[in-house]
Here is the input.
Amino acid sequence: MIDEFEQEREAMVIHQIERRGITSPRVLAAMLSVPRHRFVPPEMIRYAYDDNPLPIGSGQTISQPYIVALMTQVLALDGDETVLEIGTGSGYQAAVLGSLAREVHTMERHADLAEHAQDVLVELGFRNVFVHVGDGTLGWFDASPYQGIIITAAAPKPPPPLLDQLAEGGRMVIPVGAWGSQMLQLLQKEKSELTTIDVLPVAFVPLRGEHGWKEDNW
Ligand code: SAH
Here is the structure.
């Protein structure tokens, strides 16, 4: 995708992402091609390729580019997968996933964010990304099982419905823990057994809902 931000995007990929050790050529290509500036509010466009998260309204944020790339790399997508994302937010992470998987379902509890994200994704031509409004801690049963599940808000623990909707051999990437002590974890399901690997300490907004944090704990 050629646009006036191409050079900024290239610098972002080299300095923020490759330099920190992201090596997957497919992930690097996706980060180079998805126009991040289209997913931020107008007043944030000039900061769209900065090395940090940005506010997107409704008290939510678009994640730092490096974290988007890292979580995507951890899923190890080869192009055939059906992927579930919880926490659509701006739709940026969903677009990166849409570039790398067969089909992406993404859930957002704020209807206004979900509608805006869906509009941008359609404008950019992503026909394989489907946005659903609802409590993502319950998952999206209709398109399950998923070879990849990515949660972009911090959970008290991996929500059981999401573990059920993860395919055999599937991977889930999820920030777990309260503010100030979150760990990004990779869970893999093999022969119905789960293994967990700690990836990196992170700072995400809370996952709310039935199997998330209840409204008043932080
Ligand atoms: N992936 C996003 C960033 C997400 S920020 C991007 O690329 O821009 C986390 C998002 O998770 C917020 O928009 C928040 O509203 C949403 N969220 C929190 N709890 C949720 C739940 N139970 N179901 C769906 N979305 C949830």
Q: What stands out?
A: The pocket of S-adenosyl-L-homocysteine is lined by residues 60-63, 86-87, 89-90, 92-93, 107-110, 113, 135-137, 152-153, 205, 207-209, 212 (CB under 6 Å).
